[in-house]
């Protein structure tokens, strides 16, 4: 998946005119040299939602929606939620800045979509419920959030928090200071 289709990858088959598939291609040449965006099985009709635009190429770039950016974060088993941060998952990005008594953690990006886990951009592992060990996770974020993640990664330690896919509501987390762990008030 996520590679350019070749003539050997596709074949033209008859399909009943009375049951057209929305967005399906009529000519095999219409999909050759285009990137595949989603998993397909043998003999499945290719539709415009599963094939990148002709000028988009293949790989990760066609998955980046206009106006958004892909940003990668170095992770380990802890930061990457034990390998369960897989393509298609949603995460929040938390930064912890250690400065002795004023150490603090704060969510810097909410509900970011995971585009890739390592070099895997398919969701099969996530569907199977298996962990995917990796050292890098790539997120789809706004340009402003890409700047926040970049700055956070350079001044503190990042942690990804995995979200339930049905939980997309913004969270009003004010952050936490070291002093609040010891009984003082939260950040204002």
Keywords, separated by commas or semicolons:
alpha+beta, elongated, 6 strands, 3 helices, 188 residues
Q: Could you characterize what this model shows?
A:
There is one protein chain. With 188 residues, the protein is an alpha+beta fold. The protein contains 3 helices and 6 strands, in the order βββαβαββα. Strands 1, 2, 3, 4, 5 and 6 form a 6-stranded antiparallel beta sheet that branches. A hairpin with a 6-residue loop joins β2 and β3. The chain is elongated, with a radius of gyration of 21 Å. The model has no long low-confidence stretch (mean pLDDT 80).
In terms of DSSP E residues, the strand content is 15-25%
Determine the number of helices (DSSP H or I, runs of at least 4 residues). 3
Structural class category: alpha+beta
Q: Average pLDDT across residues? A: 80
Q: Helices and strands, in N-to-C order?
A: EEEHEHEEH
Largest sheet: 6 strands, antiparallel
Helix content: 10-25%
List low-confidence stretches: none
How far apart, in Å, are the first and last alpha carbons? Answer: 46 Å
Global shape: elongated
From the alpha carbons, calculate the radius of gyration and give it in angstroms: 21 Å
Total number of beta strands: 6
Quick summary:
By secondary structure, the protein is of the alpha+beta class.
Question: What are the SSEs and their pairings?
Answer:
Layout: E1 69-74, E2 90-97, E3 104-117, H1 124-128, E4 136-141, H2 143-155, E5 157-162, E6 176-177, H3 178-181
